[in-house]
Write a structure and sequence with these properties.
Radius of gyration: 42 Å
Strand order of the largest sheet: 2-1-3-4-5-6
Helix content: 55-70%
Order of helices and strands: EEHEHEEEHHHHHHHHHHHEEEEEHH
Distance between the termini: 24 Å
């Protein structure tokens, strides 16, 4: 490991041996900066104030030797990092005065999170305050779960999934029972609104189509006059002066004159006029069809206006337009389906809750069994490590016990006839109990262990894990 420009360290190189390396020194010698450098290599938060005064940046480099096929080696391959000829992998972290941080692994720029994932299984920093974590009950349970590995993690994942379903079902049942009157009133309002919409039976885009039709019916006379004049101008009309040629006639005359000439350019223009004449013919035919379908029907206009009034009543209440009304109706149907406060619906929900509780109890029991089976293994492994830490007569026991539910606890679950609290981590409490020597009683580590003993227990756990 090489450190440059970090805190009190101008430049230093440390040879960290596999297994355990102890860093000691006087106050101000740079022990904290060594730990800070390790934390940076492990993807920790970068603090610009750690850059040495007078330096523009701090650099920390570390050489790791991942085993072939290990998660660290797979990670390096995944991000495209290159190993040296001896199989080692160089990780580096650069921190500038303006707070910017860059991470590299095997010559490739990577996010700091990649370094964190790399160091997770290859680097452990044990400081003088780390043992305080053991005083928290949740940390003691996490230690056991980590030691157990997939045996517990798989059971815990399934337990959490069922627990979420059970809690949701229980909460919904309680809400229906407590707020049945309010929910029934809401259901009545939704049912009335949906009945009103169903009676009108709006269709998607109907308001837009009716608006266009109403305008056409109201302006039928003017539209007919305009279309007839346009038709006469394009192709002529039976009652028009035959001496006044139409647009099609004029274009036809021009085309014939151009194509009668021998000049190729004029002939080409004549062909283009032929295309124009074809377009004019299509327009004339469409105008004729338009005039045939245009109908000034006062009865139909009144019907359209009445339909628009019906739709307007809906859009004033439920949406900006007909499509909005239909979207509201769909949401209302879904909401109404969930507001069934009948005795049958509540009974069905209660049955579902009981089924989930039975399933959750089964998974909670399986989780307890897995933890209990692993607890003895963890205690024996840590006890063996304590023998090498000047605690040869000490013994660590890992005790798994049920967590009793308090009165009125919403997460209470009956397991083997006892009401336990079904928390997100299961129904178990895990406690590390230490007996420092044969004549000493076994006490929880947060009560009976000294600071030095806590440090040794923490270090032994890190080795075992």
């Amino acid at each position: 490991m090489r450190i440059e420009g970090l805190g009190v360290i101008d430049e230093a190189t440390l040879d960290l041996h596999p297994g355990l390396t102890v860093v000691t020194g006087e106050t101000g010698a740079g022990k904290t900066m060594v730990v800070t450098g390790l934390q940076l290599l492990a993807g920790g938060r970068a603090d610009a104030s750690r850059v040495r005064r007078g330096a523009d940046r701090a650099i920390v480099e570390g050489r790791f030797r991942p085993a072939q096929g290990s998660p660290a080696a797979d990670l390096a391959s995944e991000v495209g990092a290159r190993t040296d000829e001896d199989g080692t992998l160089i990780a580096s972290r650069t921190l500038t005065m303006d707070g910017r941080s860059r991470a590299h692994l095997g010559g490739r720029s990577v996010p700091a999170g990649v370094l964190a994932e790399l160091a997770d299984g290859m680097l452990a920093v044990h400081g003088q305050n780390d043992q305080l974590r053991l005083l928290r009950a949740g940390e003691q349970r996490a230690v056991l779960d980590r030691f157990a590995g997939d045996v517990v993690s798989g059971a815990l994942s399934t337990y959490r999934e069922i627990r979420e379903q059970w809690l949701r079902c229980s909460a919904e049942l309680a809400t229906r029972r407590e707020n049945s009157r309010e929910l029934a009133r809401e259901a009545d309002l939704l049912g009335h609104s949906l009945a009103e919409i169903t009676a009108v039976d709006p269709q998607p885009g109907e308001d837009t189509a009716l608006l266009a039709e109403a305008r056409r019916l109201a302006d039928a006379d003017q539209l007919r006059e305009t279309a007839a004049l346009a038709q006469a101008a394009v192709c002529g009309a039976p009652d028009c002066d035959h001496d006044q040629p139409s647009a099609i006639d004029l274009v036809g005359q021009a085309r014939r004159r151009l194509q009668a000439e021998s000049d190729p350019e004029l002939q080409a223009l004549g062909e283009r006029l032929g295309e124009a004449a074809a377009v004019l013919g299509d327009v004339a035919a469409e105008l004729s069809g338009y005039l045939e379908t245009l109908n000034a029907d006062p009865a139909r206009l009144e019907q359209v206006l009445g339909r628009q009034a019906d739709l307007k009543r809906l859009t004033r209440k439920y949406g900006a337009d007909v499509d909005g009304v239909l979207a509201w109706a769909q949401q209302a149907h879904q909401r109404l389906a969930g507001l069934d406060t009948s005795e049958e619906a509540i009974a069905a929900l209660a049955t579902r809750r009981d089924q989930l509780a039975t399933e959750l109890t089964r998974h909670a029991t399986a989780l307890t069994v897995a933890r209990t089976a692993t607890a003895r293994e963890l205690g024996d492994a840590v006890t063996a490590e304590l023998a090498g830490l000047a605690m040869g007569q000490a013994q660590l026991a890992v005790v798994v016990s049920p967590t009793l539910a308090a009165e009125g606890d919403d997460a209470a679950l009956t397991v083997a006839g006892t009401r336990l609290r079904a928390g997100p981590e299961g129904v178990d409490e895990v406690e590390l109990r230490l007996s420092a020597h044969p004549d000493a009683g076994s006490l929880p580590v947060h009560k009976g262990a000294s600071g030095g003993e806590l440090s040794r227990v923490m270090l032994a756990l890190e080795v075992v894990l």
